[in-house]
Fold:
Amino acid sequence: MEVSVYNIQGEDTGRKVTLNDSIYGIEPNEHVVYLSVKQYLADQRQGTHKSKERSEIAGSTRKLIRQKGSGGARRGDINSPVLRGGGRVFGPRPRNYSFKLNKKVKLLARKSALSYKAQQNEIMVVEDFNIEVPKTKDFKKIQNNLKIDGKKLLLLLPEVNKNVYLSARNLKGVEIMTASALNTYKVLNANVVVLTENAVKLVDETLNK
Structure:
């Protein structure tokens, strides 16, 4: 699959880049994509939720009423879950939500996500570029030139570029990451995936191990 290479002025350079069919041209596997996204979202959860149960409430353990003879149900101490201010029954406890996925499953999920974007014509390749001084205005201008302003954007770079990151971090819906850190959720969450020429090569190396 061949795509045109654009410069940051939004002009077609006349060059083309061949996207590897084993990455961008496979039949997407929906189940592994689901598992990969589920794992990513689970990893984002802190799992620090906690409510106090009956034994953890500070209160007297004296029985409020006698056990028999009142005509009503037995009632324990003031920490009882049926009373206001009592402990919670089977409340949430701190836990780790993460789970393991095999490397091959995660690899297939990333390839499936990129193939899905390629089928939807939502992948764009631009020349390698740099921003001399961090300015949001400059990055916004690049978006306008490429006609992707207002869309959720995932920009993949071959390596960390501090100036590009600082220029884009205040823009809503813009995500900057290195090609080696690519994950399924970020790809699917974007309306358009933009790769620099060197990032295309790095994606090939990363996903074709």
User: Anything to note?
Assistant: The longest strand covers residues 12-18. Residues 49-96 form one domain.
